[in-house]
Amino acid sequence: MPRQPAIAVLEFDSIAIGTHVADAMTKKAPLETFRVGTVHPGKYVVLIGGSVAAVEESYVEGLRIGADGLTDEVFLPNVHPQVYDAVGGKRLAVGGDALGVIEASGLAATVLAADKAVKSAEVAIVEIRLGDGLGGKGVTHFTGAVHDVQAAIEAGLAVVTRPNVTVRHTIIPVVDGELRRCIGRSTQFFTGSGG
């Protein structure tokens, strides 16, 4: 996924509404990144990327049309390149001493927290996972020096203030070598992370 200056994520509790919104959003403005689909438990997610003007225009249209089914949303006009890359599937090795994890019940909230975290401290995003395989949750793993990971986690948590979104986190000051190796390969249990 090429880097873009803006992304938006909209989550819906209705597949029908989400599909209708996705169609309207792609017709509203030229987008360079467009991903849609279902995630557990029956959510429909639209992720778009492109120029700030195009993403904002499509995002506003999505909010207007899908208001009845919208459960979470975020528009990031100046998304951090690490967030953009990680949402597209890029992974990094666990390189720092510390590991931080932010887990949220909303995918948009996960992206928002990750963006704020990585803009607030010298950390690297190991991965961002969104949706399936997580029961519809999102999770971000960060690595770096302990004080940077702590600052990043605090900043990420501070921006997720939605009453319908549950957020949990942890900081491991010194990551065990075996855990580092497993997380570096995958955080999905059945794709080789267990041993």
Q: Could you give me the name of the CATH homologous superfamily of the largest domain?
A: BMC (bacterial microcompartment) domain
CATH T-level topology of the largest domain: Alpha-Beta Plaits
Give the mean pLDDT: 91
Number of β-strand runs: 8
**Radius of gyration over C-alpha positions, nearest whole angstrom:** 16 Å
Question: In short, what is this structure?
Answer:
By secondary structure, this protein is of the alpha+beta class.
Plain-language structure description:
This protein is α+β, with helices and mostly antiparallel strands and 195 residues long. The chain has two domains: 6-76, 2-Layer Sandwich (Alpha-Beta Plaits); 81-186, BMC (bacterial microcompartment) domain (Alpha-Beta Plaits), CATH 3.30.70. 37% of the residues lie in helices and 29% in strands. It has helices at residues 15-28, 52-66, 81-87, 107-120, 146-159, 177-185, and strands at residues 6-12, 33-39, 43-50, 70-76, 98-104, 123-130, 138-144, 167-172. It has a four-stranded antiparallel sheet with strand order 2-3-1-4, sandwiched between helices. Strands 6-7-5-8 form a four-stranded antiparallel sheet. A hairpin with a 3-residue loop joins strand 2 and strand 3 (43-50). The longest helix has 15 residues, at 52-66. The model has no long low-confidence stretch (mean pLDDT 91).
